[in-house]
Amino acid sequence: MKTIATCATAVLAAVFALVGIAGTAFADTSTSDADAILALHNQYRAEVGTAPLQWDTTLQASAQQYADQLLASGKRDHDPNRGPVGENLYWDASNGTRQPAATLNATSAPISWYTEKTVLGGHYTQMVWKDTTNVGCGVATKSETQGDTQSNTQVVVCRYSPAGNTGGPAF
Q: Most CB atoms within 10 A, among 61, 87, 99, 142?
């Protein structure tokens, strides 16, 4: 997996160099990001009395692949080929002119989804869905420099099994 991520990073850097954009892309969810994302999911689940989720490396791998695909394409669509799993998507970006762009944090995704709690939004209810037992997330980040402007973009994809928001009580 690391070899694939390294190759993908090299290919993207070459593409950016060809079109005159200095940039790097980082694919693969770090252990610290995975731990922090899982901890937030389980904190929010504890608030409503649902059992903690377990981290699923198969879900993580498929989510990582799709996060990389979304970052490369710029699209913001759910994966129609993900199978019978739930999916939450998140994008974040920062820019800096004559200064470094702000560093992005993968935990912004579950924090953002949590803010939907007051309206029982689909992202929030998927995180706390009673019957969901497993989660795996992918994080893809890209840094680009054009002239004196630096920008960072991050895509987070979390996949859930069994899928939530399918009828019945959320929690």
A: 142
| Residue 73, SS3 per DSSP | helix
Residues 121/129, Cβ–Cβ less than 8 Å: no
pTM (global) more than 0.85: no
d(CA 125, CA 113): 9
Cα 127 off chain centre by: 13
Strands (E) in 7-112, as ranges, are: 22-27, 54-55, 86-97
Cross-strand pairs, 90: 156
The predicted-structure confidence for 120-138, as pLDDT tens digits, reads as follows 778 999 999 999 999 999 9
In terms of DSSP bridges, do strands 54-55 and 22-27 run parallel, antiparallel, or are they unpaired?
unpaired
Looking up tokens 């989804």 gives: 113
The total of other beta-carbon atoms located within 10 Å of residue 26's CB is: 17
